[in-house]
Amino acid sequence: MTQDTKSLREEIIKACLYLSKIGQFTGTWGNISVRVEDGFLITPSAVDYMTMQPEDFVVVSMEGKKIRGERVPSSETELHRRLLILRPDMGAFVHTHSLYATCMACAQETLPVIVEDMAQIIGGEVRCTHYASGGRSKDLSEEACATIGDDSAAVLLANHGAVVGGRNLAEAVNACQILEKAAFIYINAAAIGGAKPIPLELVTEERNRLLYRYGKEDVTNL
Questions:
Q1: Catalytic one among 76, 125, 180, 206?
Q2: Catalytic site residue 78?
Q3: pTM above 0.90, yes or no
């Protein structure tokens, strides 16, 4: 469990600025949650990332009650809350509006596992919800929870964007970039016959290698 510290809040601000720089966030559209001891930290609503300060963050309980903070929490707070409850294996979620993942979301298509690092970091295929208005936070969160499953760290929000998780903030940020790369490859591979998915049993093998063996044993000859 992560402690709510000033350094963690500064790390989230750096992540927001980085994700804005590489096109994952647009304006103030995009948000981050990180699980902490008494609930989760969430980025505030309608605050420019360039001016965001550590004290601007809000801590919300897993029951949905604001515990600390003066700002209004993100409009997607319920989305983050429900996903963090559903997926105790995830320590952070990032909601993005990146170009190619959003293309997949607008097509309401599933992104199969087509790249090795997608198998490792995201796990299973990334499925797309039915459309729910961003202003209807309960509907949006219910759709995301019904769609993500327990095998994937990401879900596409129809005609909206994506939500991507990780065991910690750094992994979630990395997973956002891997999702965008995979979506780019999938869309462009259509011009040469389409990307071929990795077989399911090998997807599971790659995911388990990252979760349980990567950096812990010599796997070069397995």
A1: 76
A2: no
A3: yes
